[in-house]
Amino acid sequence: MMRYIQRLADKDVGLTNSMIPLGSCTLKLNSAIQMIPITWPGFSQIHPFAPRDQVTGYLEMIKELEDNLVAVTQYDAISLQPNSGANGEYAGLMAIKKYHESRGDFHRDVCLIPISAHGTNPASAALCNMKIIVVACDAQGNVDIEDLRKKAEQNKDRLAAFMITYPSTHGVFEEGVMEMCNIIHKHGGQVYMDGANLNAQMGLTSPGYIGADVGHLNLHKTFSIPHGGGGPGVGPIGVKKHLEPFMPGHPVMPVNGRTNMAVAAAPYGSAGILPISYSYIKMSGATGLLHSSQHAIMSANYIAKQLENHYKILYRGQNGRVAHEFILDMRDFKKTAGIDE
Prior knowledge:
Blueprint: H1 2-10, H2 32-35, H3 41-44, H4 56-73, E1 77-79, H5 85-102, E2 110-114, H6 120-127, E3 131-135, H7 145-154, E4 159-165, H8 177-186, E5 190-194, H9 207-210, E6 214-216, E7 237-239, H10 274-307, E8 312-313, E9 328-329, H11 331-336
Parallel strand pairs: 2-3, 2-4, 4-5
Antiparallel strand pairs: 1-7, 6-7, 8-9
Helix pairs in contact: 4-10, 5-6, 7-8
């Protein structure tokens, strides 16, 4: 039986026998010195509902981490409760939904999503009972701004949100991103920025500066928590001031006075692994975080340059550059190699 189970296990791809290519999810330094604190009893053996006067050090670390993430993103507040990026998407969209409802706009239920978006984006919007309208992309993979403008205008009375990823999922810094945000705000909607690619923004720009109202941050991507293998993850949301009252709270352990909208069982989600990101930020400092973004972008462009004579780089920006990742188009390569589609 043991041999049979082992043979079954060997048929799957795992970190013990191969590589799981999760892209930007895995391209981070996971140094031992960042991991050590999560083994300390003061972090690893604390109950999520322990009395606050017994965990003052833990709460101080959480507050400091939130403040650091505010500085990086230029949002006004952070909630560390969501356990994943998808969980953060749900929390962020629910904050938008409750914000509209607080203003009496119960009819605002339309969410515009580019056809190039992450699959979790429409899934999260559907969970929030929003009506999804797809926005077209142009031949370069960028959001078609005129199509966005048209659909925002057509749905201006019901527009709730627009979801976008920056840099985009096809590996380009879209130059029209601030114009997109302005279009949505002009028609009464809120901008949700998927934080999957924050690693290409740190120290260079920020979601808050660009014009986003809310978005999640994958601590298991940008801030070094190991993720290649399925988790655990932390997907906190950052929000602008007007959305802060609608961030996740907790009925047992209120979070900054908020008791509603919990999206996880514990008030601070996967708090046991937060020392990893805390250590990464503190040891990197502002200069180090900037360098990590610069290094990611320059490395991607170096690799693209080395490969461009052998493979087609599917999408590039107007200056021929990519962001911190890019897509290789293997279709022509397959044909020249005699491989059928």
